[in-house]
Amino acid sequence: MQIELKGIFSVELNEPSLPADPACCCVLMSADIGARDSAGADQFDFYVVTPGFLAKYPEVRWGHAYLHMPEFDWAETKRMLERLVAGVRADRWEDAANQLCRFLQWEFDGYP
After folding, report:
1. Environment class of residue 33 by beta-carbon count within 10 Å: exposed (0-12), middle (13-18) or buried (19+)?
2. Which parts of 5-108 fold into alpha helices (H)?
3. pTM confidence score
4. What pLDDT score was predicted for residue 111?
5. Three-class SS of residue 59?
6. In this structure, what DSSP letter does residue 43 have?
7. Residue 112: pLDDT above 80?
8. How far apart are CA 40 and CA 112, in angstroms?
9. pLDDT tens, 7-44?
10. Of the candidates 4, 53, 5, which has an alpha carbon nearest to the alpha carbon of residue 74?
């Protein structure tokens, strides 16, 4: 099965807007990913977080579903998601989604 990135968005920013300080931010993002031969997609969430943000807010935190980049950039975020999606090899959607879950938070993760 082949999967594809169908779109990315943020509830915090409208593309092409940038955070007030692109080098010091943590932005909640969502990616719609689904089978290439289907119009449907599932939502996967993650944070784009910069070293400047981590330095400014030095708290202990888990790092699952964090994309680290020096400065927030829509094009680079999309490029990294496309690379991640291109590396998924699975026969079934559930297996593909579980591979993506190693890096992203799937909307259906943990459902029976």
Report:
1. buried
2. 51-56, 74-86, 93-100
3. 0.94
4. 78
5. coil
6. E
7. no
8. 20
9. 999 999 999 999 999 999 999 999 999 999 999 999 99
10. 5
CA distance 12 to 19: 9
The rounded distance, in Å, linking the Cα atoms of 29 and 68 is 13
How many CB atoms neighbour CB 29 within 10 A? 22
Contacts by 9-17 with C-beta closer than 8 Å and gap 24+?
Answer: 15/74, 16/74
Ranges of beta strands (E only) in 2-108 are 3-9, 26-35, 42-49, 66-68, 105-106
The answer to whether 48 and 67 have CB atoms below 8 angstroms apart is yes
What b/e string do you get for 72-95 counting C-beta neighbours within 10 Å, with b at 16 or more?
A: bebeebeebbeebbeebeeeebee
**For the chain, which residues make up each domain, given as ranges?**
3-106
65, 104 Cβ separation under 8 angstroms? yes
Sign of CA dihedral 7, 9, 15, 20: negative
